[in-house]
Amino acid sequence: xxxxxxxxxxxxxxxxxxxxxxxxxxxxxxxxxxxxxxxxxxxxxxxxxxxxxxxxxxxxxxxxxxxxxxxxxxxxxxxxxxxxxxxxxxxxxxxxxxxxxxxxxxxxxxxxxxxxxxxxxxxxxxxxxxxxxxxxxxxxxxxxxxxxxxxxxxxxxxxxxxxxxxxxxxxxxxxxxxxxxxxxxxxxxxxxxxxxxxxxxxxxxxxxxxxxxxxxxxxxxxxxxxxxxxxxxxxxxxxxxxxxxxxxxxxxxxxxxxxxxxxxxxxxxxxxxxxxxxxxxxxxxxxxxxxxxxxxxxxxxxxxxxxxxxxxxxxxxxxxxxxxxxxxxxxxxxxxxxxxxxxxxxxxxxxxxxxxxxxxxxxxxxxxxxxxxxxxxxxxxxxxxxxxxxxxxxxxxxxxxxxxxxxxx
Length: 409
Hints:
alpha/beta, L-arginine/glycine Amidinotransferase, Chain A, four-stranded mixed beta sheet
């Protein structure tokens, strides 16, 4: 597979996901806040909802498209002794409070599945008292990395609860054959810097948005920008967003639906002024210029008109309610073909008002599951899928996907 993503909306060809496993059932209500969850999830229903979502992806993807489970990649890479040793060394170093150096030798000898269970669920056979918290946020593969053009930006989590996932992703990029073509172009964030994939939106091969959120530090943003501007990107738009749980990443309040349409949470995007900074190279120097708004910055940088559709519609209460349930966090399968939680009815009504055909997940799979889906430039479809358990984790369709290959538009 050609790893390349040059837009948010190109026809999806390859995506990495994680269908919820037993780790979500290990979230104790007393630990949920520490593990970055607002509620506990019922594993069986969450798995069913997630697998149904993947059926939509498969129906929309071209022949040869791949939906890849990230744990399968971990299982493959952990079969390499050097990859296992690298990961365990990083784990011991990054979590000194866990005293894992005492069992480092034991970890190196674990079989692949036992090691995978340890890093995802926290349990170690014959542990002698050594356990870790589970990794329920692995569900949100988006945050682990972002493919930008033929480069990959490897995230570094801001919260300790997700740092283990960052180490796992770094090991994949470093050692798994799937990432061989982008390994030399990898952009890495180190030390106390942080950036997460939910804050990175690829507008085109020349333009990238990065949210300055509670999860992406200023130094992480600058480090990522330096790498991107050295890899063919011409402009990075840094978007300052509220530093709060409800808008933890840029994609929780803003996503792309078609070539010139975006879904935006009005209070945090459409009603903000002077919250965008353009970063670009002038010789060997990175220069900055303030932009009056994200809408203005996008139109000025691309030379195209954009329409921002309101998450939740016109009613203020509905805007806040549906942003909370990821109404702005849609995932594009192709230009104008998007997926989102069915519960965000006012957002879907707004899409219908702007020419989208509303289909349920089951209608879409029934129509396109047994024939090739041809992305029509004049066709716009908003696909609703059930996610009542998944939604408890505070992440929508975009959060649960890491695209690694899209057709160039």
